[in-house]
Amino acid sequence: MRTARKGGTSICSRAARLERRFAVDAQSLHYEEVTITSTFHHHAGQHPRRRLDLIARGVIDPERYITGEAPLTGVADCLERMGEGRQLKTLIRPELD
User: Fold this and answer.
1) Half-sphere exposure of 78 (CA within 13 A, CB side)
2) Residues 23 and 51 placed together within one structural domain of the fold
3) Structural domain tally of the chain?
4) Are residues 51 and 82 in the same domain?
5) Which domain holds residue 15?
6) What is the mean pLDDT of residues 5-23?
């Protein structure tokens, strides 16, 4: 939630087990009007392994799909460009900050 702007959305995208819990700052959630949502993909284990294998064998060139690099502080701008269709995938490099 600390990375979301006021009125923004925080996406939980890590694989979660049913028993996994996390704490939320209710005051920030309410007053900063942050939305928390999640992603779901039931083949999470299979597809990334297959993609990595295709990249390792040279079948897929990842450079074709990574259309930009940005520091962590540039994520909001990247998301805006992606929403406009000007960027496909962005490599986030915190060391650029």
Assistant:
1) 16
2) no
3) 2
4) yes
5) 1-40
6) 72
